[in-house]
Design brief:
Layout (H helix, E strand, L loop, with lengths): L2 H28 L18 E2 L9 E6 L6 E9 L4 E6 L4 E14 L9 E4 L3 E4 L5 E4 L5 E9 L4 E2 L4
Antiparallel strand pairs: 1-2, 2-3, 3-9, 4-8, 4-10, 5-6, 5-7, 5-8, 5-9
């Protein structure tokens, strides 16, 4: 065996050892003991379900923390399909919204005026103040957004739909 072959074998062994060390380190990072109250959720583990009333049929939700129906902090994700709308409504408590995918349009007022709606895309954040009438809709791309607030969370519609 010449020195070039020996050098190639040594380099290969070093890379293999480095790969094993990195693999063990990444497993160790994900398998850490979490302190009480810590929550860590990865995208592949989010459990989507059909959204119950009061959201119109066709949307989905995933509860990440808390229970929106009970007092206390909650965080949930909402998936709205393309060409979807939530009629004029208000919430008894403010809600904080972060858009994760797609685009959602939000307008304030007691009637739907799409010319006054604001488009929010991935990365945008907005707060819907308590008891302020607004409407929400998507166009062709749909949307996923995350809502954080204090429960109990509710949607109070202005008119039956």
């Amino acid at each position: 065996m010449d020195s070039r072959e020996l050098l190639t074998i040594i380099k290969t062994l070093r890379l293999g050892a480095l790969a094993v060390i990195l693999m063990l380190f990444s497993v160790n990072c994900q398998a850490q003991d979490l302190p009480k109250g810590a929550i860590q959720i990865f995208p592949e583990s989010v459990k989507w379900i059909d959204a119950p009333s009061p959201l119109p049929p066709g949307s989905q939700i995933a509860i990440l923390e808390g229970n929106p129906k009970e007092a206390g902090m909650f965080t949930m994700r909402v998936k709205l399909p393309p060409d979807y709308s939530i009629p004029i409504h208000f919430h008894p408590k403010e809600e904080r919204v972060t858009v994760l995918e797609g685009a959602v349009y939000v307008g304030f007022g007691s009637f739907v005026d799409t010319t006054k709606a604001q488009k929010f895309t991935a990365g945008c954040f907005y707060v819907n103040p308590e008891n302020k009438e607004h409407f929400v809709y998507t166009l062709s791309e749909g949307c996923i957004f995350q809502v954080t607030g204090m429960g109990p969370w509710a949607i109070n519609y202005i008119e039956d739909f």
